[in-house]
């Protein structure tokens, strides 16, 4: 049999044989009609292994094995012959197209979800775009797996065993499965120096360079390529330090940045300390104190602050100060540029300077620091800031979210630069997913709600609004609920089936002990003050699966971000990128991302009436919604994407490595990078507003 669109013919040597029980066929309707899902059942979850055997330049065998987590349950072997025209065109996509089609058909016929796939090295070389296509089109995490056909004999000598292609595929599936945690997510990999091994030390291949190139505008791409060439040619070693490898915006940005830069052979590393829960309680208190979201009697004592210093010093001595450790001087194998990307770890700055006084050290502060509280004599905020500033003052550059009130007066203007938080359009949080995968993750959400005895989402019978954020005292969750209650009053004459529900959800982080407390306070508020709405407000803490949050945002009608205090909150730009009008507070860096009455609406903190009125307008005025949605989707700046973030960091590394001086003087780092690269912004190119940064 053959397929003209794929430019090859296919011989089926062995096809998948697992049968689909009739009740699965009935359940398959639940994918198209998710309101009829029986939430007590689960879709089968599988892993795949894929291998090839090349017979000639134009003929190969493809083996696909399916594993259920315990044992192999199915496999297929197909022989593909490339047609003459395609051979002349040197078409390299035929293998990937066939595999994608086979796996897509398999999951739909058997109503299952393939979570990950082991791809042999030979197959990856033959079809270098297969991995990124598996991720983008089927939401399958692709691992490139070494296959070793060399087996030892009893005499200890090696012999080559000719494995069949289906056996190699089965081995790849088992190796892939071994890289998963009990949560059915890829394991987080940390090496002996506490270096975060992003994407399982490069085994996971989510995107290609071309994928990233297509995700930004041409001037951004040209500029970043200039700095990549300089940094690679000079063999610069760039090292990031932050507190946690997973959970929260810093970790998300670092995973994405390292992934992108390593595609370009940039020598970039990311280190984290060994976690200590007692220290995380102190650092979270410091965070809340500096933002002013704790009662006045909450303070961090000198003893508690000393714990942080002890913790950082212990990690530095154990992991980062040894031979070729990142804190050592560059001439001793250490980093050429050090970036402290967390206000929990400024104690590393004087240590790094002690090893190499002329090496650039950059400090980035990603939280709001209330300068009014810091100036208050004897305040808890002043006490915490003075402790941090004793180390931060040794940094060469101080980077902040582009909000002037976030920066205490102690910071020298010439050392200050603006750098917003960013996200990644190609990762699990933001990529465009097929309806099949969106409904799978909503199914997972329903099961989570059932397991926690929470209300069920009625989508698609009813729409919903959502706020996706950590359960944090600064995220304005009570305001979200009160605004929704007021919206329901405005809709009191509408049938319930026409009224939107509300979803409040988010991930946790290992250094955030407040999550359970805020969650409990939220549930108490609903049941004590708005019991009549309890069945229509879904408040759920989710595991670390980015795609669940992606699905919730993708299928929502309107996004909310009613923070009372905020850093930048790039979740706002994530919503806009998906074409979701957003209603958000004028807090922190949020107003930089939302164009009022164009891409969304900005409100004052605690203005429940305004939020409710805007929600009412968006669900009752179709033209308003569509106009705002399209504007939001098309006016997101490259600055908030990984490529734009890489541009800024590479500019800093290129400009400062080797002891060179750089004084940002309260400029946007992105502007400096673009101008120095000869790619300044055009007037019509979307970018965050500069006039609001001071």
UniProtKB/TrEMBL annotation:
SUPFAM superfamilies: UDP-Glycosyltransferase/glycogen phosphorylase
Domain Trehalose synthase N-terminal: 241-401
Gene Ontology molecular function: any one: glycosyltransferase activity
InterPro entries tied to this protein: Glyco_trans_1 (IPR001296), Trehalose_Metab_GTase (IPR052078), TreT_GT1 (IPR049438)
Source domain of life: Eukaryota
Keywords: Carbohydrate metabolism, Glucose metabolism, Glycosyltransferase, Transferase
Residue span, Glycosyl transferase family domain: 464-634
Signal peptide per UniProt: none
Keyword Transferase among UniProt keywords: yes
GO biological process: glucose metabolic process
Subunit note: Homodimer.
Family stated for the protein in its record: Belongs to the glycosyltransferase group 1 family. Glycosyltransferase 4 subfamily.
Protein's UniProt name: Glycosyl transferase family 1 domain-containing protein
Species annotation: Exophiala dermatitidis
């Amino acid at each position: 049999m053959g397929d003209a669109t794929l430019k090859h013919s296919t011989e089926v040597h062995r096809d998948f044989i697992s049968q689909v029980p009739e009740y699965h066929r009935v359940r398959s309707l639940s994918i198209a009609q998710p309101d009829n899902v029986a939430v007590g059942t689960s879709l089968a979850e599988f892993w795949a292994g894929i291998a090839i055997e090349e017979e000639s330049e134009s003929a190969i065998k493809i083996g696909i094995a399916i594993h259920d987590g315990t044992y192999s349950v199915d496999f297929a072997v197909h022989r593909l012959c490339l047609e003459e025209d395609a051979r002349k065109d040197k078409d390299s996509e035929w293998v990937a197209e066939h595999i994608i089609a086979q796996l897509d058909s398999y999951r739909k016929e058997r109503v299952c979800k393939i979570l990950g796939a082991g791809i042999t090295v030979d197959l990856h070389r033959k079809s270098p775009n297969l991995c990124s296509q598996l991720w983008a089109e089927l939401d399958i995490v692709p691992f490139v797996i070494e296959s070793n056909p060399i087996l030892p004999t009893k005499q200890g000598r090696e012999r080559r065993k000719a494995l069949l292609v289906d056996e190699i595929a089965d081995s790849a599936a088992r190796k892939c499965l071994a890289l998963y945690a009990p949560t059915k997510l890829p394991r987080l990999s940390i090496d002996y120096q506490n270096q975060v091994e992003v994407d399982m030390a490069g085994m996971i291949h989510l995107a290609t360079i071309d994928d990233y190139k297509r995700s930004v505008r041409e001037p951004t791409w040209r500029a970043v390529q200039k700095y990549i060439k300089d940094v690679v040619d000079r063999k610069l070693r760039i090292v990031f330090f932050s507190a946690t490898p997973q959970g929260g915006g810093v970790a998300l940005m670092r995973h994405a940045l390292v992934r992108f830069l390593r595609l370009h052979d940039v020598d970039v590393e990311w280190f984290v300390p060994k976690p200590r829960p007692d220290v995380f309680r102190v650092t979270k208190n410091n965070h809340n104190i500096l933002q002013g979201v704790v009662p006045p009697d909450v303070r961090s004592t000198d003893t508690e602050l000393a714990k942080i210093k002890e913790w950082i010093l212990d990690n530095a001595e154990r992991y980062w100060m040894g031979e070729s450790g990142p804190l050592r001087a560059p001439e001793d194998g250490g980093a050429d540029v050090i970036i402290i990307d967390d206000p929990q770890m400024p104690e590393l700055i004087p240590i790094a300077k002690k090893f190499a006084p002329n090496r650039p050290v950059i400090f980035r502060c990603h939280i709001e620091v209330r300068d009014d509280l810091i100036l208050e004599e004897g305040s808890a905020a002043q006490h915490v800031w003075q402790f941090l500033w004793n180390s931060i003052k040794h940094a060469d550059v101080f980077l902040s979210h582009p909000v002037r009130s976030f920066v205490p007066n102690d910071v020298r203007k010439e050392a200050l630069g603006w750098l917003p938080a960013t996200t990644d359009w190609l990762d699990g949080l933001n990529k465009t997913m097929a309806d099949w995968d969106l409904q799978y993750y909503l199914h997972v959400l329903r099961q989570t709600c059932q397991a926690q005895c929470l209300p069920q989402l009625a989508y698609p019978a009813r729409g919903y609004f959502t706020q996706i954020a950590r359960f944090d005292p600064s995220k304005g969750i009570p305001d979200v609920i009160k605004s929704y209650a007021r919206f329901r009053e405005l809709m009191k004459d509408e049938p319930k089936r026409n009224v939107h529900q509300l979803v409040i959800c988010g991930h946790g982080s290992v250094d955030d002990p407040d999550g359970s407390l805020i969650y409990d306070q939220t549930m108490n508020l609903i049941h004590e003050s708005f019991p009549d709405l309890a069945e229509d407000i879904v408040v759920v803490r989710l595991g670390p699966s980015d795609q669940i949050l992606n699905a919730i945002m993708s299928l929502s009608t309107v996004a909310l971000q009613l923070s009372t205090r905020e850093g930048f909150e790039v979740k706002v730009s994530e919503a806009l990128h998906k074409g979701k009008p957003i209603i958000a507070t004028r807090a922190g860096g949020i107003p930089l991302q939302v164009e009022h009455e164009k891409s969304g609406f900005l409100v004052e903190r605690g203005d429940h009436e305004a939020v409710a009125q805007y929600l009412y307008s968006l669900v009752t005025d179709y033209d308003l919604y569509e106009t705002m949605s399209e504007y939001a989707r098309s006016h997101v700046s490259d600055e908030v994407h990984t490529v734009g973030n890489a541009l800024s960091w590479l500019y800093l590394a290129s400009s400062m490595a080797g002891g060179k001086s750089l004084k940002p003087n309260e400029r946007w780092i992105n502007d400096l990078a673009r101008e120095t690269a000869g790619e300044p912004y055009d007037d019509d190119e979307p970018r965050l507003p500069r006039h609001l940064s001071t």
